[in-house]
TrEMBL record:
InterPro entries given in the database record: Cupin_2, GPI/OXD, RmlC-like_jellyroll, RmlC_Cupin_sf
Keyword Metal-binding listed: yes
The organism's place on the tree of life at top rank: Bacteria
Name of the molecule in the record: Cupin domain-containing protein
Pfam families xref list: Cupin_2
Residue ranges of domain Cupin type-2 in the record: 38-102
Keywords: Metal-binding
Single GO MF annotation: metal ion binding
Phylogenetic placement of the source organism: Bacteria, Pseudomonadati, Bacteroidota, Sphingobacteriia, Sphingobacteriales
């Protein structure tokens, strides 16, 4: 069995989302998704929740502002937070520099996102 080494230039796929945000897929199975995402300054995603998936965000660079079930939480580099199934949430970059983070989802969020 071969164990691939991933980087931004050598990932499964890249994608653009939201307001000029970018992502890199490193693991993409039904059971697990691992992505790196970049949010430019003054960007935000839509409020949503997942019925099955649990997510863990780990901040690499910048400051992330999360709204989770109406509560605001700010994370800095080397901090992480778990979002449980059913929790309404979104992430924002309210800073003047890029926000980069790793996002783990189990199971994958494919077909498991309800936008509000």
């Amino acid at each position: 069995m071969e164990n691939p080494i991933f980087s931004r230039s050598e990932c499964l796929s890249t994608y653009k989302w939201g307001d000029d945000c970018y992502g890199w897929n490193y693991v993409d199975t039904d059971a697990l998704s691992i992505k790196q995402e970049l949010m430019p300054p003054d960007t935000s995603e839509q409020l949503h929740y997942h019925e099955k998936a649990s997510q863990f965000f780990f901040i690499l660079k910048g400051r992330a502002t999360f709204t989770i079930d109406g509560e605001i939480c700010v994370l800095k580099p080397e901090q992480g937070i778990e979002i449980k199934p059913g929790q309404q949430h979104f992430i924002s970059n309210k800073e003047s520099s890029d926000l980069e983070f790793i996002l783990y989802s189990s199971p994958s969020t494919k077909n498991d996102r309800v936008n509000l």
